[in-house]
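Exercise 7.
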Amino acid sequence: MKRLGVDPPCGVLDPKEAVLLAVSCDAFAYGQEDTNNDRITVEWTNTPDGAAKQFRREWFQGDGMVRRKNLPIEYNP
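Solution. The predicted structure, written as tokens, is:
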């Protein structure tokens, strides 16, 4: 699904740090497309000890635990 975007798409947070995410949606023909399974998936993992505060995709490909939260999208036509 390409109609949804999130900014920033990735990042690193310190403990207890928060961030606001902007979610955008491209125009589409609501009611003519199946939107029942539209969702945003947030994945997170702990960074390795001593890691710099720069996002690295390989943190999600190792042996560490990756957590996921699926957020269903409800459109307001």
